[in-house]
Amino acid sequence: LTHRHVVIVGGGSAGISVAARLRRAGVTGIALIEPSDTHWYQPLWTLVGGGQAPLRATRRPEASVIPDGVHWIRQAARAVDPGLRAITLGDGRRLAYDHLVMAPGLQLDWNGVPGLAEAIGHDRVTSNYAPEYAPRTWDLIRGMRSGTAVFTHPATPLKCGGAPQKIAYLAADHWRKQKVLDRIRIILVIPDPALFKVPAWSEVLQKVASRYGIEVRLRSEMTAVDGDARELTVTDHTTGTKETLAYDLLHAVPPQSAPDWVKTGPLADPASPQGFIAADKHTLQHPRHSEVFALGDVANLPTSKTGAAVRKQAPAVAANLLAVMKGAEPTRRYDGYTSCPLVTARDKMLLAEFDYDLRPTPSFPLIDTFKERRGMWLFKRYGLPPLYWHGMLTGRI
Ligand code: FAD
């Protein structure tokens, strides 16, 4: 049984940001468990699917983002025993810890909709949610001149709640420019009662959808897909009716949950149907195990799961972990900040930023963030990626 002072599970946005901050604070004896040799900047996948960024711009070797002095264990974690303070690795080895940071992200449940696992990647079914399919989204959009395009949103919590509709707007704007928009029926299937949680942005998005002639099906969900027949079933949760729709392009976002081993493990929040990890919503400390913290997509926090949220969670976890190491109480509070860059056209964006109370929390207070802006689109495409690679992942911002 090897022993490490701090073990971080997951070398994605959250795990690397916390590792960098702990190293900056002089913490030693950190091990990072991460099976993948690639680190992905997922927010750009929307633009990959929209034909506005190459996939290669979204990946870097994992080794290049791991801070100096952090020991990389290239394995998947398979189980955690918080009583013994030990992690079991994929190869069966066990690793003991004094402090644990859980950041393995979430799992895409392609099997959660009958027929989806078989159809994805074939039969004109695509998804920006996985790097192997995002470039295919653009091929399908580019190749379409008429027919029906359907964009779906799952009924579970998901990462970047805006991403299922952003790609619909990028596609519609492309078809508008190609002068084929009037020949394409676009259907957006959303399980919620509105296009967005915060009413003020929802109203703006409603206008965006109408501008493109998009049929919005609210309180509705894709409940089956038949790739061979190119049909999907949409269930309307208000009336309980099921409708079969033929499609020529289907952008599907799968149901999402905590990874299976987390869901069935001892750190999962019993109140979370998807098995996300329990964490105090302000300190991010586990309620039963004070030496365990969780952040990022895997944490059961009542806010939207985004990289922008991780940017504000990581400093809280690092500061609170340092306090706990010194025997003090965690006092740094995360306020639920999250942000969703809502791309509404090929050169326009709305930046929705808010906290646990759904109160707007703008980073640029002088700008009217309820207006679509070209400057914001440029910021997403060209400003945010370098800030991510050089600022967030190095613990500087
Ligand atoms: P990830 O970054 O997903 O990292 C999880 C890591 O854990 C991975 O490296 C994985 O390999 C590793 N892992 C998995 N299982 C194990 C295991 N068993 N043991 C050890 N390691 C494991 N956010 C925004 O802020 N703005 C956006 O515009 C935006 N757009 C998005 C668009 C799309 C299409 C998608 C898919 C996401 C988008 N996001 C956006 C969300 C953002 O990417 C995530 O919220 C963010 O990456 C969460 O960070 P994380 O570290 O929790 O998870």
**Ligands and ions found:** flavin-adenine dinucleotide
Q: pLDDT below 50 for ≥5 consecutive residues: which ranges?
A: none
Q: Which of globular, elongated, flat, extended, rod-shaped describes the shape?
A: globular
How far apart the termini lie comes to 36 Å
Instruction: Classify the secondary structure makeup into a structural class.
Output: alpha/beta
Strand fraction equals 25-35%
- By CATH, the architecture of the largest domain is named 3-Layer(bba) Sandwich
Largest sheet: 7 strands, mixed
Q: How many strand elements?
A: 21
> Over the alpha carbons, how many angstroms does the gyration radius reach?
21 Å
CATH first level of the largest domain: Alpha Beta
Total helical segments: 10
As for the number of domains, it is 2
Question: What is the CATH superfamily of the largest domain?
Answer: FAD/NAD(P)-binding domain
Mean pLDDT: 97
Percent helix, as a range, is 25-40%
CATH topology of the largest domain: FAD/NAD(P)-binding domain
Protein name: NAD(P)/FAD-dependent oxidoreductase
Domain FAD/NAD(P)-binding: 5-304
Organism: Streptomyces ureilyticus
InterPro entries: FAD/NAD-bd_sf, FAD/NAD-binding_dom, Sulphide_quinone_reductase
Description of the molecule:
- This protein has 397 residues and is α/β, with parallel strands linked by helices.
- The chain folds into 2 domains: 2-106 and 258-335, FAD/NAD(P)-binding domain, CATH 3.50.50.60; 109-255, FAD/NAD(P)-binding domain (3-Layer(bba) Sandwich), CATH 3.50.50.
- The chain is 26% helix and 25% strand.
- Strands 1, 2, 5, 6, 7, 8 and 19 form a 7-stranded mixed sheet that branches.
- A hairpin with a 5-residue loop joins β15 and β16.
- α1 (13-24) packs parallel to α9.
- The two termini are 36 Å apart.
- Bound molecules: flavin-adenine dinucleotide (FAD).
- Flavin-adenine dinucleotide (FAD) binds next to α1, α2 and α9.
- Flavin-adenine dinucleotide binds at residues 9-15, 33-36, 42-43, 45-46, 76-77, 103-105, 128-129, 159-160, 163, 259, 296-298, 305-308, 310, 341.
